[in-house]
Amino acid sequence: MKSSSGQISAPLPLPDARPRLEHLATIRWGLLAAALALTVIGLATVHSASAELGTDYFSRQLVWVGVGLVAMAVAFSFNYHTLLGFSLPLYVLSLVALALVLVLGYEAGGAQGWFRLGSIGVQPSEFAKLITALYLARYLAAPSTRQLPLRQIFTAVGLVALPMLLIVFEPDLGGAAMFVPMAAGMLLVSGVRLRVLFTTLAACAVAGLLIWSLGMKPYQRQRVLTFLAPDTDPLGAGYQVRQSKIAVGSGELAGRGYGQGTQSQLRFLPARHTDFILSVLAEEWGFVGVGTVLLLYAAYLANVAAVAMRAQDRAGILLVVGLGSTFAFHVLYNSAMVIGLVPVTGIPLPFLSYGGSFTLLNFIGLGLILGVDYRRFANR
Questions:
Q1: Is residue 114 in a domain?
Q2: Which of helix, strand or coil describes residue 122?
Q3: Residue 42 — left, alpha, or beta (φ > 0 → left; ψ -120 to 50 → alpha)?
Q4: DSSP at 2
Q5: For 228-253, how does the pLDDT look when each residue is reduced to its tens digit (9 = 90+)?
């Protein structure tokens, strides 16, 4: 580039969108530390829970954690506004993937919700949750008014209902239910009146009755009936919860010790490395271990709430609230499920349960939340 004096000057530096070293002190390290502590506990528990299964789930989960950490760093390095700009085509692609899995996917756990890529199973419904949160944050952030117009509320509900309906057809009711707390939290923060929100939730309840009548398979109905009357079939549909309660109760205060749980090591407890991993932790480490894990979850969610309250714009607030609401519902429902307070469904525990797609999406969500907080100080 030539200056006014005719001399060639150095080219102007391009703005760098990547995180800078001088801003690393602004990262919410407490949030990251809580997630990593939960991940370490999860890896140790997966190792113990799967020791007698004949498959090395621990090594697989370790690989997914490594991939997740890389994905977290990538998500953090992107300005979330850039991702919001691509959220509409990503949303459309997620709907296409959910439709294709109904035809081309394979069945596991009673639901046809996975694609097989070599030896790896990919669950598009997990990615659909994240992508829907991104697009809904972009859509709800557009109005400048404090309260959303009714037309826009209905559109937002429709945007959430489309992936939910496709997931119900798999059928995966637990995966579909995850969209409800996400949408409710984001709509509430967007300025929706509580009356309108409750009316929408009532409509969801009516839809649930229709699903019970028309869309649920017999084994899913049996799970609900067993929850209402668990002693009617203790060796059948009620077996899983019964064994989980035994595991939780036998741990008492300090637990039986690592790898010493009878329910997990003697294979009495099904799904012990996935949905019921908290039962294994309770049996081996007792009330102390479960209390520690719940405190770490509380610390994680407290940091997420702080990020939402301090985000620099409406889109950032909505994105963090959507991701945080989904995360909180996972923790609350799974914790209640293992002690029989809610019906059994496939809702795993974040950062603890074994699962490739779920682990990967947990870390991507964490990277996005950290990125929203970081760009309060470095808007690049």
A1: yes
A2: strand
A3: alpha
A4: B
A5: 555 555 555 577 888 888 888 888 89
The answer to whether the CB of 369 falls within 8 A of the CB of 31 is yes
What DSSP letter does each residue of 180-210 carry, written as one string? HHHHHHHHHHTT--HHHHHHHHHHHHHHHHH
Highest mean pLDDT among 9-23, 111-125, 143-157, 232-246: 111-125
Would you say 147 and 191 are in contact if contact means Cβ atoms under 8 Å apart? yes
- The pairs formed by 155-160 with CB atoms below 8 angstroms and a separation of 24 or more are 156/183, 156/186, 156/187, 156/190, 157/183, 157/200, 159/91, 159/132, 159/135, 160/132, 160/136
Buried b (16+ CB within 10 A) or exposed e, 304-330: beebbeebeebbbbbbbbbbbbbbbbb
CA gyration radius, the chain: 22
pLDDT in tens, 343-360: 888 889 999 999 888 999
Q: Which helix (H) or strand (E) holds 108?
A: strand 106-108
Domain that holds residue 146: 31-374
Element holding 277 (H helix, E strand): helix 277-310
Count: domains in the chain? 1
DSSP state of 115: E
275 vs 1, 3, 268, 282, CA distance in Å?
61, 66, 14, 13
Beta bridge partners of 111: 108
Task: Establish if 18 belongs to a structural domain.
Answer: no
Q: Is residue 230 domain-resident?
A: yes
What is the distance between the alpha carbons of residues 2 and 153, in angstroms, rounded to a whole number? Answer: 54
pTM of the model: 0.85
Q: Which two tokens stand for residue 23?
A: 């801003």
Strands 106-108 and 120-122: what pairing? unpaired
DSSP codes of every residue in 227-250: HHSGGG-TTTTTHHHHHHHHHHHH
CA–CA separation, 53 and 37 (whole Å): 25
Provide the β-strand partners of residue 122: 115
**131 HSE (CA, 13 A, CB side):** 22
